[in-house]
Specification:
Helix content: 25-40%
Number of helices: 7
Order of helices and strands: EHEHHEEHHEHEH
Shape: globular
Largest sheet: 6 strands, parallel
Number of strands: 6
Radius of gyration: 18 Å
């Protein structure tokens, strides 16, 4: 019997604030049995260091990624169990000869989480200045699913134009905008809501947040002995 061909999701992490969103998405993909090709931009490594204290190194990416995925959104270590990383492949941000830089490399699509305005502009204009932008351009030209979780506020008119361009090109523009109807009680709940919406856009099953079921107040815990 031949081995099933690996067809990963590419997860691109740009320099915007919001590295916990990326960690939650990667955990969700791995929990769903999906493979991941990871591209961590140079700018995002500074953000990751600032937000978590983790220095992401190409030569030690497996150890650094494992530590990153163990942290909660509040920065506490060992919040989550370290997932099996056998399904993850890392590509250096400057490696423009990497597998995903070609349309012939099989992937399901790409999730950019979080997406900075610089990243949005580069993808919208087709600059391909690094591997993250190149893979996004390939994803669009191959008509594969591209989800862009933009994390910025407020948005300038130029960025809005770039986002419209991405939408017209077939990308899913998904602002990192958490909702409160799911009954969030912790910062991790808000992060998981956004990550869950990213996975929804990719068609990947998950249980990261409580879905709306048409009942007002359904997310609030009922008080014991409460009447109508």
């Amino acid at each position: 019997m031949t081995e099933r061909k690996r067809t990963p999701w590419v997860v691109g992490v740009s320099g915007a604030s919001g590295t916990p969103y990326a960690a939650a998405v990667i955990r969700g993909l791995l929990a769903a049995g999906e493979s991941v090709d990871l591209v961590v931009s140079r700018a995002s490594r500074l953000t990751l260091l600032d937000e978590t204290g983790i220095a992401f190194r190409d030569a030690h990416w497996r150890d650094d990624l494992g530590e990153w995925l163990e942290r909660g959104a509040d920065g506490k270590p060992a919040t989550f169990a370290r997932p099996d990383l056998d399904g993850v492949r890392h590509w250096a941000a400057g490696d423009l000869a990497a597998g995903p830089s070609s349309g012939s490399y099989p992937v399901k699509g790409m999730l950019i989480v979080p997406a900075s305005t610089a990243c949005v502009a580069g993808v919208a204009l087709g600059l391909s200045k690094d591997l993250l932008q190149r893979v996004a351009s390939v994803t669009l030209k191959e008509r594969r699913r591209l989800v862009v979780a933009v994390r910025e506020t407020p948005l300038s008119g130029q960025t809005l134009k770039h986002l419209v361009s991405l939408d017209e090109a077939g990308a899913v523009v998904l602002p990192a905008s958490p909702a409160f109807y799911a009954g969030a009680t912790h910062i991790q709940d808000l992060v998981d809501f956004v990550a869950g919406r990213v996975l929804d856009a990719a068609g990947v099953p998950h249980g990261l947040y409580r879905r709306w079921e048409g009942e007002l107040g359904g997310s609030r815990p009922r008080e014991a002995g409460g009447g109508a």
